[in-house]
Fold these 4 entries.
Entry 1:
Amino acid sequence: IQPQSGLLLELFFLEKDNRYTLKEDFIIDKLWPDHSGNDKRMHSAIGRLRSLLKKIDPSFNIINKNGTYQLIIPEKTPFHEIAKNVDEMGIFTFLLDSILQKIMLG
């Protein structure tokens, strides 16, 4: 998982109490603290993460609504339980990276 996608995914999981929803301005501020971000770059970053997640499970989705993005986690996958119980994002990132490597490498 690329660092930017990993950070974006962590940001979504930090908002689990807010239904995994992020405001667009928040995403831009966090991904580009040097203020080089814009809507186009943000939409591209979201698209890359969405594509990556859909490779894991096509029912993953990230939806855009009213100036926010929401990560939709399919309940039938182990990720749903991991997401509900993650206390430290470093652990989740490690687990996700390990799973992605196994999927991509066969």
Entry 2:
Amino acid sequence: YIVSLTSLNVPGPRSDGEDDGSDRRANMDEEIKKQTYLQFKGQDRISPERIDTRQSRGAITFLFPRGEKSPTQENKEVLFVTRMGPAAINAKFLVKDMLYKGRPDL
């Protein structure tokens, strides 16, 4: 599963080839990863396998593993939670809005 947050103030790679603080970025990514999860209603939380802040400025992509835990129409909603410094982000997605041919398209 992939969740992407956009319009964020996320430092991107430097165009001049200088050190872009990759150690600092890796530490920041790891902290964000620890505080992020998806949860299908009535199921355990799923932590992201990795996050990508390098794709473009102002965006973070969270990559979650697919597995035994998957949403069904009975779950009704999917909760995405992350924390970046003082900012907390909570978003609910309705499974019924993510159907394709009568099944969750996730």
Entry 3:
Amino acid sequence: ESLTRVVGSLYGANTAGEVPPRHLPSNEAPRYPLQALAARAQGRTLVRAEIRPDGVVGQLLIKQSSGFQALDLAALETVRMWRFVPAQRHGMAVAMWMDVPIEYKLP
């Protein structure tokens, strides 16, 4: 196994020269919706997001619901506002879909 393949796998690249998108550390944490807090709702929403070559979010969908509409809608809005380091393929920024888990736990 080549050193390039080992190092690439450590950094999330695959053998096709792809590097997946990453969210920026400056992205705001998800806000807990007030109605969900009042209802003591908690859960995990899995958002499927298209990250465009400029790092902006394109299309979004709920891949797995938390079971609470307020949490799912808040998760969509959170990811919609985030910015990402775009995916790269052979050194070029490209659009790529990724799963973004958003966890809501009561304090």
Entry 4:
Amino acid sequence: LAVKYCNVMANNPAYVSALFPGLNMSQSHFDNASRTLIKQQLMKALLAHAVKGDGSSLANQPTSAEVDTALDPLFTTMDSCSSDCAKKTLTAACAASLGSAVMLIH
């Protein structure tokens, strides 16, 4: 469900603009500023929906810093795709965040 939601979002310019203001989807690979924007906006969405940044919501919940660190390799791995990298990377980062066990438990 998270992958479908995130894929629809990544393929709709209006949704991308609303969720990630200023994100340039025409670039073939996300630069550091774009990666930071994506991670910040995803964390904002998680934090707004019961996932606390300090990890105090659940006994084994990651902190926001741990989520940020976990998403970094995803961006590096997705940089090797052959086409539509921006959409694929945004979909993957979104789904990994919003489809995480922490979010599903809440």
